[in-house]
């Protein structure tokens, strides 16, 4: 694998092994970096993973991801299921004993299902009651959770599932990264668990995107091919994404994110696209048969408490592979 990796502009791929300028005026030199790589960590620390489940098919599809990542990082998995709060005041007192007995039976069954699902790895089962977001928020703090893994089924409509509901609240409020397995991920196949191909999408808003170490580390742990993607959304009229100046600038910024050492094993490819971000991310992921999309999510301008979830929502709800969202 060459350290310079490959550079793709639009749909045309460039190999970094050539040391002369190509027809598009892009110079990629073999054997050294064009710019000094950012010395970010290439291995993140994941000690505690929270796997949230409602025992649906979508949640079951997310379980293998939690297990695989736990094995790669030697992490402990907290399997969490939250039951609704039983309102005893709405029933006659003579029914309370039966309700309590039924609840106890349900809890034992839930514990058994989670223990069976997470067998073979270090884990702890937590059965909560009441508001799922409150239960999870407390667990994140108490157990020092580093990653949340959950499935989204979309059975009540994608808008309700991702926006304005449990998954949206978790994505918006979680202080740690969230890995979602969306409704278009094939529940009958776990090929994506191998994570052989990873796409990291970044808007390059900062020199050190918070999601970059996660993409690079996961690529390292799984010996995956890493694609770094930037989408130019707001080009001015007449601007061309494939002009040498624009493309070269964005490509060089992408190259800064991967250290020389990391480039040896993740065989990076750099892609610059133009158009709607979600559409282009999904298109690149589909074309490259991607197993995992990694992306950052930032608070909307002027709305510090509300995640700018437009692109995230579209990617999570339509991706055919899991999506890891890192907030910051």
Number of strands: 14
List the secondary-structure elements in sequence, H or E. Answer: EEEHEHEHEHHEEHEHHEHEEEHE
User: Percentage of helical residues?
Assistant: 25-40%
Structural class: alpha/beta
Distance between the termini: 32 Å
Q: Which spans of ≥5 residues are poorly predicted at pLDDT below 50?
A: 9-41, 155-164, 302-307
Shape: elongated
Q: Which architecture of the largest domain per CATH?
A: 3-Layer(aba) Sandwich
Percent strand equals 15-25%
Task: Specify the CATH class of the largest domain.
Answer: Alpha Beta
Radius of gyration: 22 Å
Number of discrete domains: 2
Mean pLDDT: 77
Please characterize this protein's 3D structure.
By secondary structure, this protein is α/β, with parallel strands linked by helices. It has two domains: 6-43 and 190-327, HUPs (Rossmann fold, 3-Layer(aba) Sandwich), CATH 3.40.50; 48-181, 3-Layer(aba) Sandwich (Rossmann fold). 34% of the residues lie in helices and 23% in strands. The protein has ten helices and 14 strands. The chain has helices at residues 57-73, 96-117, 132-142, 158-162, 166-173, 212-221, 244-256, 260-266, 277-287, 310-318; strands at 6-9, 12-15, 48-52, 76-83, 123-129, 147-151, 178-181, 197-201, 225-232, 269-274, 292-297, 299-300, 303-307, 323-327. The chain has a twelve-stranded mixed beta sheet with strand order 2-1-10-9-8-11-14-7-6-3-4-5, sandwiched between helices. Strands 12-13 form a two-stranded antiparallel ribbon. Helix 6 links the parallel strand 8 (197-201) and strand 9 (225-232). The protein is elongated. The two termini are 32 Å apart. 41% of the residues are buried. Residues 9-41, 155-164 and 302-307 have low confidence and may be disordered.
